[in-house]
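#structure-requests
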Amino acid sequence: MGEKKNSAAATGRKATKGFVQGRIFSLEFFKRNWVYVVFVVAMALAYIGNKFACQRSIQELLTLKTDLANAQSDLVSSSAKYNSMIRESEMVKLMNEKHLGLVPPQDPPYKLKSK
């Protein structure tokens, strides 16, 4: 029983000493575990690529949101300008400025009824 404890402790000390001295990243380590090393590197590259793609998508989304807000404000201003132009008083003013010889109707519009 005592021998097992000593051998386990010696193995632990050996592993710790090898890690501290940098022997864990020796050529032998890479020969034994090349598949795992390649997998970890591939996963790291995939993670970096995915993060970059997500950041690009988020930036595009923010740009589109800004463009949408600008378009909505342009729509409101255009609508207000149009509504001010179609008022009867504006129409009379335009008719007088252009000297078209038109006069606004005195009777209000009425609906046609079908029989």
